[in-house]
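Course assignment 3, question 2. Fill in each field.
Student: A.L.
Task: Predict the tertiary structure for the chain below.
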Amino acid sequence: MESWPRNMPASLEDLCVQYCVEHLETFTHHTTTTDHTTKCTLFPGVSLPKTICDKIFDFYMEHVDHVHCNADGFLNIFSNTRGTQLSRVTLANSNVTDCGLGLVKDQPIAELDLSCCTRLSSDCIPFINAMGKTLRSLRLESITYMFEGVRDGDSIFATQSEADSDGEPSANVEKNDDPILKCPHLRKLCMRDFQLEENWHDGTLQLHDIFRWCKLLTHLDLTQCNVATETFPHFQCLQHLMSLSLADVYIHDLDAVIDSLCQLKQLKHLDVSQGQCETPVMYPRPEQYLQQLVAGLPRLTSLDISGTNLAGFEKAEIQSFRPSRNQHGEDTQHMDSSAVTCSIPGLEGRTLEFLGLFGCAHDACYRKNIPAKRVSGESDEEQVLLSLQVYQDRCGLLIKALNSLFHLFRNFAVNRQCAVLEAILAGMKRHLWDKQVQIVGSASLFYIAKGEQKDYITQKQRRKIISLLLRAMETYPTEQTMLRNGCLTLSIFNIPHDVMYCYEKLVNFLLRMLERAQRDDYSHRIGIFLLNCLACQVDGREKEIVGSLGAIETMLSIIRRKLLADVCDDVMEVAWSTMWNVTDETAANCERFMDKDGMGLFLSCLEKFKDHAELLRNMMGLMGNIAEVKELRPRLMVTEYVQVFSDLLDSTSDGIEVSYNAAGVLAHLASDQEETWLVRQPSRQEVLQRMVGAINRWDIRARRNINYRSFQPILRLLTIFATPEVQHWAVWALCNLCGFCPDKYCSLLEKECGIGLLESIQADTRPYKAIQSLAQRVLKQVQARSSWEDQDQEDQVLAGAVGGGGSGEGGQGDGQLGEEEDKHIVKDNDDGDMGFADSDSDEDIRL
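Answer field:
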């Protein structure tokens, strides 16, 4: 198995950079401009090192929401060249304007990326030229409009002085032939997706007008550009060019351009691949073309002909020529009878470092004896992985490679999962706005997150996965396949632990997703499951966040829709379960439930679905949380409610769970002073008698699917000596819990000072014998546990059943699906709610 990176925490420097970016006020002033945007200005006297500046800039652009970010306001920090120094500026997909770019024109920038910056115009070109003395790499993708009008009579370039590649004036140069990009030291230029000839058919500006003045270029990327045949001769002025990409450039007349390409004698890498078409591009004489290119480019070591027929037909009789040296040390070629057969006509005698054959005609990548050390294709894992790595900027081929990877995962044939993971994450990050990349990428992430190597995934990688999935779902909130893949993959992680860094953002998204859902498809079901897991195992602050974002209202809306449809399914049950979780020891959420007519829905569900044990248990658990809130108990003191709770004491639904929860509600109602019992029928005494009768029927050794994180609500009832029936329920609950799970609950009882309360019951004469007997039994359980050196095997089994089987403690309780358990949606609440809804996860991952 390949090596994974060490699971190391972020460096102190990275943490400081993150904090500074998230709290810009620590080193900048914020002022509001006339257009109501915020401008950041560096504090006087503050100076940031160059490496820190680059890190701050990169972190901001990587984590900011590009749709709503204030790029110009942030760039104003770096207008102070005395206190800041930038060398690498990536503004891709940002809302930077011409003025914003002008703020950093005096910085010593070596690398500049302005791809897909839709607010830039030709007015920014002088700012780019101002950086020309230091600029070495420039990326201008999908911003053809930036050059619109630069050759017009009134253009700002019409009066600029002519300059050659060294910055010296050129003689006899017409005004219309001024250089557009004055970057004499530029080495790398990317102009992807430029359609100049198509947009400006009058010929005022041609593609070569932009790049031909950059005489020192070593790398030129014209992927997906509309390159006219007349442009190719201008490549000859780039005599230092080592890499040329003409990917997805349809060459109408290959015969007419091959001679021009062959003049680039320094060229080491050539890309003429096609990835946009479903079928390979078919040239008339592929073998001849390939042979001409290879013969004319003596230094070529890397060639990509993916998506074409340039690999020709395999001819078994073709043998490779092996170079030898004559007596003068010069290379010669001769036919060696022992030479290995070459399967790519036109490449005889050459062994390339890289050859791109993905999607080539005639299954070229499946051939043996391919004359290259590394080959991109779809025949095996190594070829697919290489394809993922080299086609990061090519949506068409990247999607095809991701599809091939998905099918490899379905056949359990991926070993290098770390490298694959990094390639998927890079591709999804690069192509956020391509829906198919996000969908297909998320499908493979599912298999990595649940695969045999899942334990090696580092925390940093986990966060990248979670962040990219959440960002993709936010970008495509109505795309059911994206929601399905994203939610299902998230459910595999340790919820909520792994998502605490983005807790509020994830909760907010899930709630909005559930509000939009018009039908209860799988994404709806897994979404409500995730929300339920997010409400488990968290403190009151997070529960309050969930409530403040509208969880109660959303769950009640789902329940109303189910009631109207006369349907009680797992979605209905989890909606009640989620409210059970989110109201646990959180009075504000309990009040929200009451204010939104939750009790009316409670009675309606009880009347219509009274035979659904899971539903009854979830609803009564929620009622117990509300009854714990002293201020809300008067609102429960309604004849209809009290009668329902009293009648449920006799319920045998779900074992003792419904009856137990009903008794708990009534115990809390009766714990207040007698005059607060405002209901005539049933009377307080009648209810207390029925409650004791129910408690006496329960099996004290009953194994429970329940999980208490605190005994405080129960311990409060131990002090109610005026109403011993209330104490009876509380002591019975403690005795039962400490009996079937002593290791957890005896410790919890000691931690929360419950021992003294039980001892006070034993010493008092007011509690009747049954209460004192149960109190004594609990104390013995605690004493016995403290003397154990090893936990009893039976207790281990029971604790495992509580944790892994659905109590909310352990693997299932924190929302993580195991390999066998991922066939179900698990519903788990803080007090031990657990249920299942059938769904085969593998079958639900889609492309």
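Instructor remarks: Residues 508 and 549 are 6 Å apart (CA to CA). Residues 153-175, 319-328, 332-338, 789-840 have pLDDT under 50 and may be disordered.
Grade: pending
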